[in-house]
Amino acid sequence: MKRFRGFVVKEFYHIFRDYRTLLILFGMPAVQLLLFGYVLTNEIKDAKIAIYDPSKDVATRKITDKILSSGYFILEKNLNSVSEIEPVFRQGEVKLALVFETGFAGKLEKTGTARIQIIGDASDPNTANMLVNYATGIITNYLVSMNAKQVPSQIIPEVRMMYNGELKGVYMFVPGLMAMLLMLISALMTSLSITREKELGTMELLLVSPLRPSQIIIGKVFPYVFLSFVDACIILGLGNAVFGVPIRGSVALLLLESFLFITMALSLGILISSMTSSQQVAMLISLVVLMLPTILLSGFIFPVENMPWILQILCYCMPPKYYITIIKSIMLQGNGIVYVWRETLILAGFTSLFLTLSIKKFNVRLA
Length: 367
Description:
367 residues; mainly alpha; abc type-2 transporter like fold; 4-stranded mixed β-sheet; 14 helices; 4 strands; 66% helix; elongated
């Protein structure tokens, strides 16, 4: 036990003496969370629009004011004719154009109908679709409020969004970023640990030491478990303090689940390092094999249900998918272990699998 304790202390010394490792462990997660938390968002604000309003009557002014006061749009240009729409779009600044028909208020009052043409720049189809939906919703809301006293009976749907009433994109991205950062940092750091020993020529000392393979593996993992757990606390604190992402469920359960996920990621990193002979190869595998699948196949950005069935099968083989589900369930919905026990067992299974393979692979190396 004393030998094992000394081995773990030695690993801590190695980590704290390497400032680059400390910078990656503690600086990289905070910077990436802040950077991606602000950059990765599906919300659109202050989109520039152009308006052609030949009538300039009370109705068109009210609709224009309502659209511009929504926070989604900024008036870039008042057009003098319909022929100016395409040149404005070609400049690349304006994403949406509104065209009111002539005599808008008069036709609305006499016939009850008037036309507004909404033209979107579909070179970016997702943005165009969202902006068109925003504008349509605002105009519909204006018509409902205007006709409230005139229509004897009407059905007005009341929409309520659970768990994220303001539809903030950061509520979706912070849990995904947390899984991606912990997976990348944990696996990357540990994948370099054994390969570093090989390159420095100190692996022979470990091989002839009284320590068993399981003790060497656990000794290598333990320091990074502790430091990555500190990373998880930092990410949770920044997500809550900076972006306002709530933690409605049990903080203790959230930390325990994070601890389990970190252990799984570290075990995978040890498995990678035991199968490679250089730090460059281990780093390449960690970045390419882990980072891209975590982003693309974990449900972080793209819904799993929309993928082909072959990719859906691969998604269910990705541990971050289950961790993201756990985080969202605890943080946003306030659920307990009753709702996430299946995902917890799956993560525990991955952890056991990777640890077992790491120890067996290390036994082969010893032979």
